[in-house]
Structure formats: C-alpha cells, structure tokens
Amino acid sequence: MRNSELIMVVLFLAVLSLCKTNSLACNEREKHALLRFKQSFTDPTNRLSSWSLTEGCCGWAGVRCDNVSGRVFELHLGNPDDSGKSTLVGKLSPALLELEHLKFLNLSLNDFRGTPIPSFLGSMSSLTYLNLWGASFSGLVPHQLGNLSSIRQLYLGGNSGLYVDNFSWISLLSSLESLDLGWIDLHRDIHWLDYVSQLSSLSELYLPHCQLNNMISSLGYVNFTHSLTVLSLPSNNFIHNMPNWLFNLSSLLVLDLSDNSLVGQIPSTISNLHNLNYLNLSVNILIGRIPESLGQLKHLEILSIFSNFLCGPIIPYQLGNLSFLSYLDLHRNKLNGPTPSQLGNLSSLSYLYLQSNELNGTLPRNLGLLSNLVALRIGNNSIEGTISEVNFAKLSKLKYLDMHLTSVVFNVSHNWIPPFQLQHILLRGCKLGPKFPAWLQTQRFLQTLSLHDAGIVGSVPKWFWMWASNIQTIHLGYNQISGNLSQVLINSTNFLAGSNRFVGQLPHLSPNVVLFSITNNSLSGQISSFLCQKMNERSKLRILDLSNNALSGDLGHCLMRWHSLTHLNLGSNNLSGKIPESIGSLFSLKALHLHNNSFSGGIPLSLNNCTVLGLIDFAENKLTGNIPSWIGKRTYLMVIRLRSNEFFGDIPQQICRLSSLIILDLANNRLSGSIPRCLNNISAMATIPSAIDDKFSTLKFSIYLGYQGSFLGHREGLIMVVKGRKSKYTSILPLVRIVDLSCNNLFGGIPIEISSLFGLQSLNLSRNHLMGRIPEKIGGMKYLESLDLSNNHLSGEIPQSITNLTFLSYLDLSYNNLSGRIPSSTQLQSFNALDFIGNPELCGAPLLENCRENEGPQGDENVEGSERSWFYIGAATGFIVGFWGVCGALLCKRAWRHAYFKFLNYIKDRIYVATALKWSWLRYHFRRYHMISKFGMSKGLQPRRKGGKRWWRILRKTGPGSSSYFNGMGKDLYSS
User: Element (H or E) spanning 902, and its range?
Assistant: First the structure.
C-alpha cells in the first residue's frame, strides 16, 4: 500500500513539474522578437502554427526555455523532413539579437534563398551551438563569426555557394570542438591548416568538397595532436604525399582522405594511429604495397582503399589479426597473387570487396567460415578452380555474391540447399552448366540474377518463369538456353536473354518491364501481334531490342502504346511494309534501328516529332524518295546510316547543321548532285575525338542494381563498312568519325572544305562521277585512317601533302585519271600497286611504271617556282629601295647634292693623277730596262746564273720612293 502511495506521489510531482515547465512565464520581449523572426519566413506546412500571442513562447514548437528564468536558450528549427516539404523559406531576421541568452540555434536544411550569412550572428556571444547546414546560404562567410568566443559546435557545411577569403578568424574560436565547413570554397587561403591547427580543443573536423589543394602545414606541426578524433577531408584537390603530421594524431578514430589525388605509398608510420577504427584512402593515386604495419591497428573496423594503384600481394598476413574488421574494400587496384587464407581469420568481416584486381589461384576454403559475411565480391579477377558446398558452409548471412568474369566452376549437387538467401547473384563467365542450376529456386528474395555466359545448355526448367517473376533484373545472355516463349509472361524490370536458342513467338510483357533485350535468337511470328498486345496499365518500357531474329510482317499502328521507348532496335529481321506514321508518337526516342529488313516507302514525316533523336539506322532496306530536309533540325543527331537503299535526289544542305554528327553513311543509293560544300560546319568531325567530350553518352542507358557500384548498362552498337570490310563498333563507337558517300551518282569536284574535317577517320567517296583534283590540303586530315576515292574521274597529280597522313592504313585511288609521280613516303610506298591501278599517267613506286627524269611531283615544281618568284620579287624590291633611297635624298637636299658632286670631282682627280703617275713610271722603267739589256753587258751588269736578276735590284733602287725615280718622273710629267 505504501509503495503504491509513493508511486502516486512521484507521478503527481512529475506532472506538476511538467505543468510548471509549460506554464513558465515567457519573457514578453523575447516573445515579440520570436514573432518578428517568424514573419521573415514562409511556413508552407505550418510547422510554427503554435507561435501565437495567445500562448506562451516556452511551449512553442522548437523553442526551449530555462526552467528557472523562463528565458529562451534553444531554438530547434532544423527541417525534420529530408524531402524538403517542411522547409522554412525566407531570410534571417536581426530580431534574434534580442534573445540574449540563446545558446543553441539550429536552422539546418531550410531555404534562405542564396542570401549571405548575416554578420550580426557574430554578436550572439552566448551561442555554443550554431547549425546552418544545407540552408542555401551563399556569398562570403562573415569574419564576425570569429567573435563567437563560446561556440563549441559550428556547422556551416552543405552551402555550396559560400566561400572564405581569409580563414584567420577561425583561430579565435578557442572553445571550438566540432567544425563542419563541407562544400564551402576554402581554396583562397593557403594557410587554412595553420589557423585550424591552433584550435587546441578541436575534436571533429569535417571539410569535404572544399577545393583545398594543400595539406602541408607551413609550421611543420599541428596543435590538435591529442584532441582530434575525426579528420574528414574527402573530395578535395590534394596532389602530394600524405603529410607526416597526420601520423602524430594519436587520438584519431576516423580518417577520411578519399577522392583526392594523393600520391606515393602508404607510410608504415600509419601504425601510430593505434586508436583508428575507420580508414578511407579510396580514389587516390597511391602506389606500392599495403604496409604490414596496418596489421597493428587492432581497433580498425572499416578499411577502404579502393580505386588506387596498389600492387603486390593482396594483404600482408598481419591483417589477419584485425579481429574487429567488418568492412574491407580493396577493389579496382593492381593487387596480384592468390587470395590469402588469412582472410578467413577475420571473424567479424561482413563486407569483402576484392573485384577488379589481378588475383589468381583458387579461393581459400576457410572463407566459407566467415559466418558474418554479407557481401562477397571477387569478380573480374583470374581466379579459377572448383567451388563446392564447402565454400559456402557457414555463409548463412550472405546477400551479395559476385564472381563475374572469373573461371570458377560450380560443382554442387543437384539437390543442394544453400545456407543463405541471396539478393544479388553475379556469376557472368563462371561455369554453372551444362544443366540449369536447380539450387536457384531455393532463393526467395532474389533481386538480381546474372548468369551471362555461364555455360548453360538445354531448356529452361518449368519452375523458372513463375519463380523469376519477382526478380528485378535477369541476364541470361550468351548461353545455349532453349525453350518456347509464346506463352511466357515477363514481369522483371530488366530482362536480357540475347544469343540463346529461344523459339516461338515473342513473350507477353508486363507494364513494369523497362528493358527487354532478346537479340540473336530464333523468334518468329508477326511483330504487330507483339506491339498490339493488351496491357492493363501504360507500359514503362524504355529499351526494346528484338534484332537478329526471324520476326516478320509490318509494324502496324500500335507503336503509340509504347510511349516511353527511348531505344528501339528491330534490325536484321524479315520485317516489311512502310514505316508507320505512328512512329512519330515516340517523343522520347533517342535511337532507332530498322536496318537489314525489307521496309519500303519513304522516311515518315512524323519522325520529325522525335526531337531528341540521336541515331537513325535504316540501312539495307528498300526505302526510297528524297532524304528529308527536316533532318537538319534534329540537332541531337550523331549517327545517320541510310546505306543500301534507293534514296535519290541531292544530299540536303541542311545536313550541315548537325554539329554533333559523327557518322554519315549514305552509301549505295541513287543520290545525285554535288557534295555539300558546307560539311566543314559539322564541328564534331572538325575536332579531334576525345573520350572526355563524349556527346554519345546521351545515348547510353544505365540502371542501378541496388548495391555498391553495380550498374546494368546499355550501349549502342553499329555494323559499319570501314577499310573495305564490315566491323561492329560498340565501346569505341563514340570515338569514330566516318563519312561514306560511295556508290552513288554524285558529280562535280571534291569540295576543298572537306579537308577541314580534321577529326575524320574514314572518308569514302568511291564509285561516283567526281572530277577535278584531290584537295591540296587533304594532308591536314591527320587522323584519317581510311581514304577511298577509287572509280571516279579525278585528275591531276596526287597532292604532296598526302604524305602527312601518318595514320593512313587503307588507301584506294584506283581507276581515276591521276597523273605524275606518286609522292614519296614510307606510308604511300607500303600500299599495294592495285591501290593506284587504272591511272595510265601515274608513275613511281609502288607501280612498276617508272617516271621519266624530268617528271617529278607537282609539289616540288611548285616549291621551286615559288622560290624563283620570291627571288625576283626581292631583287626588284631591293633595287627600287636602293635607287630611290640615294637619288631621292639628293633631289630633296641641295647641300647633300653639292657635297656629293664635289666628292665625285675629288675622286675623279685622284684617279686621273694616280693613273698618269703609274703610266709614266712604267714608261720610264721600260726604257731603262731596254738600255741596260742593250749596253749593260759591257759594263759588267750581265746577270749570273745563280743569284741572278741583278738588274731587278738596280730597278728597285730607282723604283718608287727613290730620288732618281721622282726625278725621272718629274721630267716625264714635265715633257708630257
């Protein structure tokens, strides 16, 4: 009795206390301040409906008051609804300044319409908690926030429009314990780390997506060595080694440096972080081996280092000591060798991701002992060997099994009942056959089943279709599975069964089907029966691929029922009749394949309604008429393939407006007229192909399969005639650039503008009536791999610039009227003589016809002629400039003219005197020599045989400079 009375008293006091709390006297000043604050918002869901004059503010939604003073000290106005329905919209009112005792302010996930964070928040000195996360602020983060001396938790992240110019104010927040500035631009201040490291009380630091590019401290150290427990810096721009100061953070529990560009090896000093339980270094450029010291992190629970360049053995044996490790992700590296048996020691392991490495050998059997394992992903490796029931003995929690693209052979008994219930099975390339695996029917919660290329032979078991009706994605392609599908209902969202042996008519589709591909089977029957099937709801089908079957008949008029179609492939069947106008009701259509059928008539005008059409493949039909001019309005078009039909008329000029066009194949029709000169306007062909600028990606279709990084993709493929043979292009199709106008009745010349298509890889203009010369600048098309101009009426010499086509591997210039020498280059001389045959006046290798001596490439003659022309032009210019430079000056300046002629008179007198003196000297000595030779013998002047020419010494004594010389000269001058 006493106990019950005591309980009643306690309950009474509790109720009394609650009533007292709700009836706290609200400060009138703060009450009116809150009402003014409310007026600055719109409240679409009436979250603040309790905020009224009739009630005390301490009982309002989101308002907390002090139990003693009744003053407002907390505002919890963060949006509780992630969908955004309860968002407060408006701007912050300075009325908040009147809440002098406010310590806690949460306005996260509201919408402040891109307004700046008001600087008056820096005056609210009582705040210890401020949360503006994801509230749509923008502009400069105010420096006044540095005045919040009592702040302990500051969350400004999730506002991608904010930026910081000077981060020094953060160092003033000495009490700060948790800081989140994610998605704020911090790159303007390179000393951010020096300021943050001064926060000695900081425990948690979140700076993801902040455009930071430097994690090296100029101080060489940081001050939060013993306080920091969480360091999250993912998705920045760090391009350097992991700094040494990181490994001095002995209290660190969480380290996330993922999605950066960190280089170098993982340092062995990482073992200094002995308290670490979360380590994420994924998506970087780390190299080398996984350090053995990681095995010393005894508390590690999550280890993720995927998408790097780590090599060597998968893990050192020391990692087998990590008894708390539950998540290990090393996929997409270059790890090699066998899967280590030490993995079997990780008793807590739940998620193991090793796919897309270079692992080999067999799977260790003790993996089957990991009783907590939920996901096992080892696909895309070179793992082989046989797997039996033993490998799955204790994997009762397994949900995800991925062994795709391995050589694993499943050897389990026919009546095996697995211990697990899987949700996703990816066994592409594994050997499960030849019989259909019966153990699959025990899996009741399956969402994804991929048995692509699994070696299964024979008919589908009777239980399969009913069992598979609830599986979201089924991929059975590239097996030898047989069966009649006429009475089958497909209910899976994505169903792919191409390259099998299915027969009968097409199955019925549920409205839930989004992707249905059953290409390359033996299905038959009227296509219209399938297209006109009745459905209770509107179809969600987006991709329909029925190509390479034996379907027949016309398309009927039921296409409008499939309004969601984006990709339609009915190629390589026995379809006939006209393409119906109802095809224009497929407004979302992006890719349309009707090739290799017997369609007749023209291209329907209604196709103009398909405004996002990117690919048209009507090749190898019996279509006729003109190519419609409206095709130039479909600016998304990247592929036009109309070859092998009966189209006639001109190629429409409007086709040049298709700036994204990469493939234009109009070969083997009856087109006439000239080649449009505006083809150089097709910018996609005029630029160098790049995987980065992939406009073709708009034709791709991907479906997320519901678990980490797994997508089911659909890529377009085309069969193209290139280099004289048919080839199928799929993965590299976005990089292909082709123009094929061969086998038509085109005439006129090859427009020189076509040589501006610098990105073109294949050009085929053969079997037309083209005349004139090959464009001189064709050598500018440096990416050209195939060039076929055969069977035309081209004349003149082969341009010398063709030797610049270093990628050219296919060339055919045969049967034209080309002349002269074939330009000399290793590339051209490597082709067969048949590639130049049928040009009677062509000579030089590889033809057997030798060129005459005076025959040479037109290019050399042009060069020589050009040099002669420039020589004459230079000579004439020099003469004119020199002549008028002298004569013009003399005509304009009288003083120069007088000086010039005076100088000429002086030079003339000097030349005259010098000539007269020389002439007199010669006459004098000639007479003297004559006298000596006549009379000198008798006076002993006869020269001796040795040391002769004594007479010359005598002449020298009387030569110029001697007195006798001048005396004689004076006499001669006087006499003259």
Answer: helix 894-935
List, in sequence order, every residue forming a beta bridge with 504; answer none if it has no partner.
523
In the predicted structure, residue 946 carries a pLDDT above the cut 60: no
Q: How many CB atoms lie within 10 A of CB 315?
A: 24
Q: Which ranges of 799-893 does DSSP label H, i.e. alpha helix?
A: 826-829, 858-892
For position 689, what pLDDT does the model report?
Answer: 75
Any residues with CB less than 8 A from the CB of 557 and at least 6 apart, and which?
580, 582
pLDDT digits (tens, 9 = 90+) for 858-899: 444 444 445 556 666 767 777 777 666 667 666 676 676 677
β-strand partners of 152 = none
Long-range contacts of 474-478 (CB under 8 A, 24+ apart): 474/449, 474/450, 475/428, 475/449, 475/450, 475/451, 475/712, 476/451, 476/452, 476/500, 477/452, 477/453, 477/517, 478/452, 478/453
871 token code pair: 């020589």
Find out whether 421 and 443 touch, Cβ atoms under 8 Å: yes
Q: Which residues pair with 408 in a beta bridge?
A: 385
Distances (CA, A) of 823 to 361, 841, 847: 56, 14, 12
- pLDDT tier at 854, thresholds 50, 70, 90: low
Q: Are 341 and 314 in contact (CB under 8 A)?
A: no
Of the pLDDT bands very low, low, confident and very high (cuts 50, 70, 90), residue 709 is low
Determine the 3-state secondary structure of 163 from DSSP: strand
Residue 283 to residue 257: CA distance in whole angstroms: 9
Strands of 389-462 (E only): list them: 400-402, 407-410, 424-426, 448-450, 457-459
Dmax over CA atoms of the chain, in Å, equals: 184
Mean pLDDT on 29-41: 93
- Using CA atoms, how far apart are residues 237 and 366, in angstroms rounded to an integer? 41
E-strand ranges in 506-556 read 508-509, 515-517, 522-526, 543-545, 550-553
Give the whole-angstrom CA distance, residue 765 versus residue 740. Answer: 6
Q: Identify the residue whose tokens are 């807590």.
A: 348
At 4 the pLDDT is 53
Query: What pLDDT sits at residue 890?
Result: 64
Q: CA-to-CA distance for 217 and 214, rounded, in angstroms?
A: 8
User: Over the chain, what is the mean pLDDT?
Assistant: 87
Half-sphere exposure at residue 73, Cβ-oriented, CA atoms within 13 angstroms: 11
Whole-number Å distance between alpha carbons of 262 and 265: 9
DSSP 912: H
For residues 666 and 741, the answer to whether their CB atoms sit within 8 Å is yes
